[in-house]
Design brief:
With 479 residues, the chain is mainly α. It is built from 18 helices and two strands. Its main location: membrane.
Length: 479
Amino acid sequence: MANSEKESLQMQPIDSHSPHKENHEVNVDGKNSTDNVNNTEDIDNIEKMLSASGDPDDYDPHKHRNRPNPTSNFETLVHLLKGSLGTGILAMPNAFFNSGLLVGVIATVIIGALCTYCLHILVKSQYKLCKRLRVPILSYPDSMKYALEKGPRFVSWFSPYAPGLVDGFMIIYQLGICCVYIVFVATNIKQVTDQYWEPLDITTHMLILLLPLILINYIRNLKLLAPFSTVANLITFVGLGMTLKYMFEDLPPVSSREMFGTLRNFPLYFGTTLFALEAVGVIIALENNMKTPQHFGGYYGVLNIGMTVIVLLYIAMGFFGYIKYGSEAAASVTFNLPHDEVMAQSIKIMFAVAIFITYALQAYVPVEILWSTYLDHRIKNRKILWEYVCRTVVTLVTFVLAIAVPRLGLFISLFGALCLSALGIAFPAIIEICVLWPDDDFGPLKFILIKDVLLILFGMVGLVVGTYVSIVDIVRSFN
């Protein structure tokens, strides 16, 4: 839980999240030069400049990447697996309660396959765009912008605003993760301290955490956090093992649980599972940092192997967690552990420490997007001071949201449905349509076009319905 590549690999996320100040290597007539690709440039000018260099198929973006510390296939797989053990996996028993046991297993496989497929088409589309522009790497927001510029007329007008839209969803999602972390840490600490001291309100525990959260978010160089992140990873694995020990004790029969949940609660399951499985920004960062990125895709590539293992882990946690706790399955399975046992209390403290450390990594992403993309070039004096102000404001925003809505499970479902339906499903399909438009073959009977339109509709329905149900339940939870 301590690191989702929403968590662990935010050590190098900026290529994926705040791209507009990136310098890309561009090869023109066989020579290397530097061309700053940003919001203000017109892609037509780039393509005209590069037209003399020949067929774009002659350019392989993978061969022109110059990463300082590229990761091997195995290291990338480890990052992907390690990153899956986040808050999402601890919420899967609650997700299966909303879906039912049988529906949960089948739907998790389908959503996992869908997320993996959409990541494949996003990576492939980015590769085609990089070949077309003759640049080694494109960020997600820039990919959306340049794809829309060459897409159908009714969407091309939106291309200048596309990076802001993608950044907006990414910021909201990352802030949502930070809110989830604050509620999670405060709730686990409260459950332990209530056994030994006078019980305090959850809001009081959050207030106690505020100053430490601000201070840890002041760390500008994430290398300083690397040793702590390693410790957090270790704590997470040990904590999960100890949690499974409780989970497998005295399991009730499978027949004691519902096979099918209610249709009304299914959007909550959908949002929670998307939050758990989808990490589109991190996937891009992983692929961008690989030594051999051509091995990322493919039937037996890193992505397919990693996502297969991840889906199986999530199904196991949701399946056995729901069998164990049934309708009592909490927003995090750690909340179901005994309050008065030392081992259970140590698990809660371990996860609280790991997630507290990871908060700095998660908050780093919205800070970097806001500061590097939108604020840095507008502020001329006292940049360091204003950067710290930005970091403080980001922490305060997540703190206020967590105070206002201390509902962990509903937070997870809300931000999963709101942001990841768009970032993980709809946007990749839009990018693929625009990249293939109008000259490339959409396949027999325009299969690719029809498939992408269905993905867009599915993503938008998931966004609207999942967000609506989560908000309604948040409002009801206060009544």
